[in-house]
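Lab notebook, design round three. We kept the backbone fixed and only want residue identities now. Task for the bench partner: fill in a sequence for the structure below.
Input structure tokens:
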């Protein structure tokens, strides 16, 4: 038997881009760091004499490599013979051996390491004075932007200002320039800048007591429309007419429904699904925000107020935002199993072979979820610990929840429910975090990816 080893000096500053992993654990892995590496083999265990075995050259697509046979024998790549001096393309998951494994030859599996997606940075210089809130004079915290003047404030500072304006029943003026504020929302781009500044100069951070106080005042979770001036004259509405955006009103602006009518200081929320407005009301016991994504949705609110859509006020149908327990699911969400179609098909087949329906399986797992039998650390929703089957979520968040539950359905499945060819697949080391599964069909088919990563820097 022959032992493989890399003949080129390993450079510590170079990253390992691929590995040859022996199927026999008595042999060690060969790490490939250089673009071109000649692999040598010892002729016999005792001898120090070495022979070239093969040369592996990384292809520019970073997705495959060329393997050239430098030995005096045939090399097998995925059971295909590669003659002396000939070359073959190898991909992640390809198996290379000097001869048939039943004759005692070691087999190596070629694995390409997932690469960090190349990030693009632009360095900018910024006067931190521009990143300060004019109410508290500190660097913004959870920055919100007021429109149309586009001045920026801490969420907590502006929320407090908003509350006091509403108490006075006056229109909301910008604390900085006194312009009437029609709209305020969190600014995610500036939020990143806010965090970069504090990272660069920690002395600008404020005390944790200040932060707690600010956060407790902060009430702006999704874009707020502060004034809805009603247009007296009929005008054609076109999306390009920016002024018209502030003239949209909600059904309760015009008419009293459920014993409530908006007034001029009513704060409105904009529904993320239909774009319509609803009054922001914290004391009616109806969810106006999806707990999973913190965005506003109108369906549950209008349902509770007995308001149906009309031509002048298109509203969302109740289906778009309702409790998890009342939803139905007819197909596996495209997000499931990290969008890996092979795994989605396996799950579908498996449910069919068990004689069950997807709805039935999901309902069973929602029950386990409610009983807190499932670890929620990797659940891709906000406020994961607060969510129950009575929580209303938007359709997107529901799909995320179903995908999360289907992961648990699969990892706890007894293997005899899987087709034999699916059950015998080995787990990919990178598990659900594997990137190769998205661009290498062969790899996605050969390895199981509904499992935890056991290698790499994945959490
Ligand atoms: Zn502030
Ligand atoms: Zn302003
Ligand atoms: Zn209204
Ligand atoms: Zn809506
Ligand atoms: Zn949501
Ligand atoms: Zn939240
Ligand atoms: Zn993989």
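Proposed sequence:
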């Amino acid at each position: 038997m022959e032992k493989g080893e890399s003949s080129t000096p390993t450079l510590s500053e170079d990253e390992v881009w691929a590995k040859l992993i022996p199927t026999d654990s008595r042999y060690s892995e060969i790490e490939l760091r250089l673009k071109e590496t000649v692999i040598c083999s010892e002729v016999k265990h005792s001898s120090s004499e070495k022979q070239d075995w093969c040369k592996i050259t990384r292809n520019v697509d970073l997705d495959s490599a060329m393997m050239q046979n430098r030995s005096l024998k045939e090399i097998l790549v995925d059971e295909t013979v590669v003659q002396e001096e000939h070359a073959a393309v190898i991909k992640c998951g390809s198996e290379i051996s000097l001869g048939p494994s039943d004759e005692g030859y070691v087999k190596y599996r070629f694995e390409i390491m997932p690469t960090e997606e190349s990030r693009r940075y632009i360095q900018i210089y910024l006067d931190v004075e521009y990143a300060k809130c004019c109410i508290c004079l500190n660097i913004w915290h959870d920055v919100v932007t007021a429109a149309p003047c586009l001045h920026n404030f801490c969420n907590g500072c502006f929320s407090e200002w908003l509350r006091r304006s509403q108490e006075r029943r006056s229109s909301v003026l910008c604390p900085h320039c006194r312009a009437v504020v029609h709209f305020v929302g969190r600014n995610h781009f500036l939020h990143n800048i806010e965090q970069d500044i504090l990272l660069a100069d920690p002395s600008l951070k404020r005390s944790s007591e200040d932060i707690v106080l600010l956060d407790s005042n902060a009430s702006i979770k999704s874009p707020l429309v502060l004034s809805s001036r009603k247009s007296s004259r009929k005008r054609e509405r076109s999306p390009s007419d920016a002024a018209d955006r502030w003239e949209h009103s909600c059904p309760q602006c015009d008419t009293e429904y459920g014993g409530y009518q908006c007034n001029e200081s009513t704060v409105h929320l904009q529904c993320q699904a239909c774009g319509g407005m609803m009054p922001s009301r914290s004391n009616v016991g109806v969810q106006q925000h999806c707990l999973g994504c913190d965005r506003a949705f109108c369906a549950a609110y209008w349902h509770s107020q007995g308001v149906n859509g009309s031509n002048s006020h298109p509203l969302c149908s109740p289906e778009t935002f309702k409790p998890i327990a009342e939803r139905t699911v007819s197909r596996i969400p495209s997000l499931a199993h990290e969008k890996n179609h092979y795994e989605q098909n396996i799950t579908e087949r498996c449910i069919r072979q068990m004689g069950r329906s997807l709805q039935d399986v999901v309902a069973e797992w929602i029950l386990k979820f409610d009983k807190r039998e499932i670890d929620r650390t990797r659940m891709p929703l906000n406020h994961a610990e607060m969510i129950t089957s009575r929580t209303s979520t938007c359709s997107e968040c529901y799909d995320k929840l179903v995908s999360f539950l289907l992961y648990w359905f699969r990892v706890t499945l007894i293997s005899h429910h899987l087709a034999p060819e699916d059950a015998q697949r080995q787990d990919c080391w990178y598990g659900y975090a594997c990137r190769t599964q998205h661009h290498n069909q062969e790899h996605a088919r050969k390895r199981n990816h509904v499992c935890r990563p056991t290698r790499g820097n994945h959490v």
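Keep this in mind before ordering anything: The CA atoms of residues 66 and 89 lie 5 Å apart.
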